[in-house]
Design brief:
6 helices, Alpha-Beta Plaits, four-stranded antiparallel beta sheet, U1_U11-U12_snRNP_70-35kDa, about 25% strand, 3 domains, nucleus, RRM domain-containing protein
């Protein structure tokens, strides 16, 4: 009679939302040390370090998954900038990208259902008992006539997380995406329009910071997959990929600062993605 092997439960990385953190921690930190460091902030469901496939050495990139969104929010607030022995440099903690497309500021906004008789002040007062609410926007609920939908923006990620977890079931609270505002030149005063127009004089490429990377990768990868890989480094602004019909594709990845671009090149050059196929990461000027 064969004995059944115990099954390992893998947590859903997207449930609850924003409960997974990305950590830049240095190559000397072990997964056990990382988990021990974050354990005081809540229940750690999963903790692992990204390793170099050829050497097995840690790349100094870790992921920590908590059981609750508020635990991740508290860890983000209190752990960012602290030290984990024996690394002398402070760690950097960010909300990790997931298979659900989201932007960092989306963790500050909730969408809740509420009765039509409640005005914005009443909704703000109700949720303000637990969290710091910056603003409330009410719109009619198209799916439930006679009721409203409230969009609440909070002071911090932790405030939003606590409100999300303590909201009444009838509120059906969930995090809501923040849509970027489009700036129209025609809507601006004549004297300020010049600030919104692109500069026509080009600077020498030698004076521009190296924030753009060129990535050679397998043609099986999509733009979304490349985005998710490079989004583990904070500061990603843009990603585009071109396929020429061959086995190798070229992608352009842009960060909003030189340090992130440099770190991405250092950490992800020759990284196996997918397994067995190494990507090549170069400065965009090369």
């Amino acid at each position: 009679m064969t004995q059944e092997q115990p099954t390992t439960t893998v947590p859903d990385l997207n449930s609850p939302p924003f409960s997974r953190l990305f950590v830049l921690c240095g190559k000397q930190i072990t997964a056990a040390a990382l988990e021990q460091f974050f354990a005081p902030y809540g229940t750690v469901e999963q903790c692992h370090l990204v390793q170099d496939q050829s050497t097995g050495q840690s790349k100094g990139i870790g992921f920590v998954k908590f059981a609750k969104t508020s635990e991740a929010a508290r860890a983000l607030k209190e752990a960012d900038g602290k030290h984990i022995e024996p690394e002398p440099k402070p760690i950097k903690v960010e909300i990790a990208s997931s298979t659900v497309e989201s932007k960092p500021l989306d963790c500050l906004r909730l969408k809740v259902k509420c009765a039509a008789e409640l005005d914005s002040d009443a909704v703000k007062t109700e949720f303000g008992k637990i969290s710091a609410v910056n603003s409330v926007q009410l719109v009619p609920d198209k799916k439930s006539p006679g009721n409203n939908v409230a969009y609440l923006t909070f002071e911090s990620f932790l405030d939003a997380a606590l409100a999300y977890e303590t909201a009444k079931p009838e509120h059906k609270a969930k995090f809501a995406k923040i849509k970027p505002r489009k700036v129209s030149l025609e809507s601006q005063p004549q004297e300020t329009r010049g600030f919104f127009r692109p500069m026509t004089r080009r600077r020498s490429s030698a004076l521009l910071p190296p924030t753009k990377l060129t990535v050679l990768c397998s043609s099986t990868l999509t733009q979304n997959q490349i985005w998710r890989l490079f989004d583990i480094i904070p500061g990603l602004m843009n990603c585009s990929i071109s396929h020429d019909g061959g086995s190798i594709s070229s992608a352009t990845v842009t960060y909003n600062n030189t340090q992130s671009a440099k770190y991405a090149r250092e950490k992800l050059h020759k990284f196996e993605y997918p397994i067995g196929e190494k990507i090549v990461v170069r400065d965009g000027s090369e």
